[in-house]
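Entry type: protein chain
Record version: 2
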Amino acid sequence: MIEVLSNRSIVKVSGQDSLIFLQSLLTNDIKKKSYSYNYFLTNQGRYLCDLFVYKNTDKEFLLDINAESKTSFMTRLGMYKLRSLVDISDISNEMCVLYSKHEISDGAVYSLKDPRYGKLSFRTLVSINKVPTNSKKSDALYLADKYKYYIIEGGIDLKYEKSIPIEFGAIELNAIDFDKGCYIGQEVISRTKYQGEVRKKIFGLQIIDGTNIALLTKGDEIHSGNGDLLGYICSSHKNAAISLLREEKYLGLEKKEVIIKDSVYKVVVPPWRR
């Protein structure tokens, strides 16, 4: 099955200063990685957007970003551009992102495994006029993988200008390089890691006794059996949900079960954290 992901846009950053420009803004080291998962943050280390960065050359980068984040992201890039010799363009009407279990080589700019977790499938960038004929516009395969492995995606799971990505598994999901040097929000991210202040972490939720998990919505509060507030829902899909919980409270639960809207759910640790 080959999916044309419906919620992705492609931004091209090109020009003489492209590498230096993006390296100073994003959380990963795009100098040494040709394909990487990144966050773009506020000065306070809060989430603005997440994106996949492909280095075509040192002077041309293709950015795979949530479509709803595209406009604000491009606006902020323009603010930081100043005198940098870069051109920022939206090429979403020319290119699209495919998701498939197998590599697609025919007509692809690239076809690489999703860098967040080894069991995810291939993300492929192709020209719109080279989309395979056996593909379809859908997110079903991707969402099945996302909620099977409880994978974080910023545009779905995080809160704009509020969430701290390091609490949402940014390290484990390969979004941060702590050796690359400075970028926007870097001081907050480094301090959070090295001072051991990551008290909240991502957990999965599963159905117990036929509870309808699809009724859960982002921000729903999660409580223990005795009423203590543990955290909140990040997102849900079919029979699984992703949550952000205070870890010490989770570890103190006699049963790894929680209460949401008067229903009971089983808490599981994502495989990428084990």
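Comment: The mean pLDDT is 94.
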